[in-house]
Amino acid sequence: MRTLMIVVGAPGPNSVGFAVGQWVEHEARHSDEFSIDLVKLGELNLPFAEDAPLRDESGKSSHARAWAARVAAADAVIVVTAEYTRGASPMLLSALGCLDREWSCKPIGLVTYAGISGGAGATAALAPTLFALGAIGVHERVELPHAERQIIDGVFYSEADQVIALTAQLVQLRDVTDALRRPAFADTQAPTARVS
Fold this sequence. Notes:
By secondary structure, the chain is an alpha/beta fold. α1 packs across α5 (about 160-180). Strands 1, 2, 3, 4, 5 and 6 form a six-stranded parallel sheet that branches. It has a single domain (about 1-185), classed as Rossmann fold (3-Layer(aba) Sandwich), CATH 3.40.50. It is about 40% helix and about 20% strand. The termini are far apart.
């Protein structure tokens, strides 16, 4: 069974992001393609920023080492994030950037939310970060305009086109994961791109 990590970049359990993350988890479990690891970044106690992504595990904090192990164990990742000033949250960027090789060749999908844009700014801002980490971003995007209007009593009630988009993203994540498991790819690892 493939393991899908759903990373909720929202700070607390009463946030829009938490409700959207639970919706993503529900749809992913319904697809029966993945086992799920739901990660709430606000509960991980990660340092806001490590000095640098270190290859020597002994140089990382215990929380960062635990985070690295969870990322390494995932076959694919969906990041759920709001758009912050046309970008992604500092907490999410720190969580991504405190690791290095764990992201290499990792298929990643984005589910974003904001006002009328649905979080398109967060998607655009995260693209170069994911590229620099060597991750494989899938094409299908899930952007949720005014997601807060679809939440009732802490539950996100999706519309049909949103379910279609998320289902397509899950299929792409499944297909990329399976392609990377094939013998031609199993013993290779793409080099991590560097930005100087």
